[in-house]
């Protein structure tokens, strides 16, 4: 593959070459042949029953603890609408997923940012905030291969968060679309599985393991919360896409999903290694935590680096990324998120060269303006 004219480090989506197109086509044919009545009907807002059962079994839950939605963003929106009112406090990680940030802002939530460390949210800072009087209804946590920070929440922090949620009476929203994409180290238990007092509502998605266009995600959690979300879903859209969910059910239950996950992980590990190597070589000023899985790597450049100028200079070179400021209420001017999910290794190498050239250009400009 030759280096593309324009390279995007911006989109948190897989490239087409790592989507199991043929296996999905075959799963779709089987799904529609085996259960046309189920796939072509409205169904209910709970989701396509065989998929809901598969998800429930995977988490050791009953089907009543699961609702399958059109992507996990839809699940998030339902949950926020169910639990939150304007003015309610919500803890978010800083930085956090930009769309979550936007939807909480749109709802008028009182956002309480708590800094991320290389092993997840700073639980001591959170505890101080709570001791000082913060009373969140919800804490939004991305535990694995964080978007945008790439980091993973340590096991002892998962346990501490559960204790804090119990003590200070808030819901932990465990937003976990990347969990299956670990390519280094040992997997950690979900907070959902450690929860003994119905504090956790868990979301995940098939966007990163199957494909984003299928738009299938889900929530798992306490039956009462799930029942309320199901009611809200009925009133919003009657039911999610049964055709999509029937395909995902067949893809998952047949085991084809395991091959798909392996393909994605193999490619992502290669891409992450290419990215880390290129950054070390071409841009030694870059500081980053090497992600153990997932799609993203967060880069901190020396304080004072003008991220807006860097973004413009990179664009001129034919490279786009997302500015750090998009993921924070304040700060992030000298940081950026690189998504390595949608670009092959050759373009990653070329993209980093362009980034380094843009960085040199921005550095020269600011030096000459001193
Ligand atoms: C942390 C996080 N939550 C939710 C989503 C949305 O996923 P879906 O495609 O299932 O709506 C994403 C997608 O990038 C994400 O990174």
Automatic annotation (TrEMBL):
What GO molecular function annotation could you give as one example from this UniProt entry?
pyridoxal phosphate binding
InterPro entries reported in the protein's UniProt record = Aminotransferase_I/II_large, Class-I_PLP-dep_aminotransf, PyrdxlP-dep_Trfase, PyrdxlP-dep_Trfase_major, PyrdxlP-dep_Trfase_small
Question: Which top-rank group of organisms is this from?
Answer: Bacteria
**The UniProt record lists the keyword tRNA-binding:** no
Write the Enzyme Commission number(s) for this entry. Answer: 2.6.1.1
**Aminotransferase class I/classII large domain location:** 8-355
The keyword Transferase appears for this protein: yes
Please list the cofactors this protein needs: pyridoxal 5'-phosphate
Gene Ontology BP term (one): alpha-amino acid metabolic process
**Keyword vocabulary terms for this entry:** Aminotransferase, Pyridoxal phosphate, Transferase
Q: Which Pfam families does the annotation name?
A: Aminotran_1_2
The record's listing under CDD domains reads: AAT_like (cd00609)
The family database entries (PANTHER family) matched by this protein are listed as: AMINOTRANSFERASE, KYNURENINE_ALPHA-AMINOADIPATE AMINOTRANSFERASE, MITOCHONDRIAL
**What is this protein's record name?**
Transcriptional regulator, GntR family domain / Aspartate aminotransferase
Tell me what organism the protein belongs to: uncultured Solirubrobacterales bacterium
Organism lineage: Bacteria, Bacillati, Actinomycetota, Thermoleophilia, Solirubrobacterales
């Amino acid at each position: 593959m030759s280096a593309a004219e324009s390279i995007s480090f911006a989109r948190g989506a897989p490239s087409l070459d790592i989507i199991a197109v043929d296996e999905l086509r075959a799963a779709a044919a089987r799904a529609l042949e085996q259960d046309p009545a189920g796939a072509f009907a409205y169904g209910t807002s709970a989701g396509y029953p065989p998929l809901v059962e598969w998800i429930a079994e995977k988490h050791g839950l009953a089907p009543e603890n699961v609702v399958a939605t059109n992507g996990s963003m839809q699940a998030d929106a339902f949950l926020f609408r169910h639990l939150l009112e304007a003015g309610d406090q919500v803890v978010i990680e800083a930085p956090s997923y930009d769309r979550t940030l936007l939807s909480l802002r749109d709802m008028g939530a009182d956002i309480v940012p708590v800094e991320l460390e290389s092993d997840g949210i700073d639980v001591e800072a959170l505890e101080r905030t709570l001791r000082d009087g913060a009373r969140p209804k919800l804490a939004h946590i991305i535990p694995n291969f964080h978007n945008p920070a790439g980091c993973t929440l340590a096991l002892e922090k998962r346990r501490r968060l559960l204790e804090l949620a119990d003590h200070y009476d808030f819901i932990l929203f465990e937003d976990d679309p990347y969990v299956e994409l670990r390519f280094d180290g040992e997997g950690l238990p979900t907070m959902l599985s450690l929860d003994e007092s119905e504090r956790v509502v868990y979301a995940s998605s098939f966007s990163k393991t199957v494909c984003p266009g299928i738009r299938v995600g889900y929530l798992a959690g306490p039956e009462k919360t799930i029942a309320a979300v199901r009611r809200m879903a009925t009133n919003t859209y009657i039911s999610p896409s049964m055709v999509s969910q029937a395909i995902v059910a067949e893809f998952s239950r047949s085991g084809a999903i395991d091959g798909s996950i392996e393909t994605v992980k193999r490619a992502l590990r290669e891409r992450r290694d290419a990215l880390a190597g290129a950054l070390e070589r071409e841009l030694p000023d870059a500081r980053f935590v090497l992600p153990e899985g997932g799609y993203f790597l967060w880069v901190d450049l020396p304080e004072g680096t003008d991220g807006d100028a860097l973004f413009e200079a990179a664009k001129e070179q034919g490279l786009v990324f997302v500015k750090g400021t998009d993921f924070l209420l304040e700060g992030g001017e000298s940081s950026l998120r690189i998504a390595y999910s949608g670009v092959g290794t050759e373009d990653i190498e070329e993209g980093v060269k362009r980034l380094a050239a843009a960085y040199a250009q921005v550095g020269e400009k600011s030096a000459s303006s001193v």
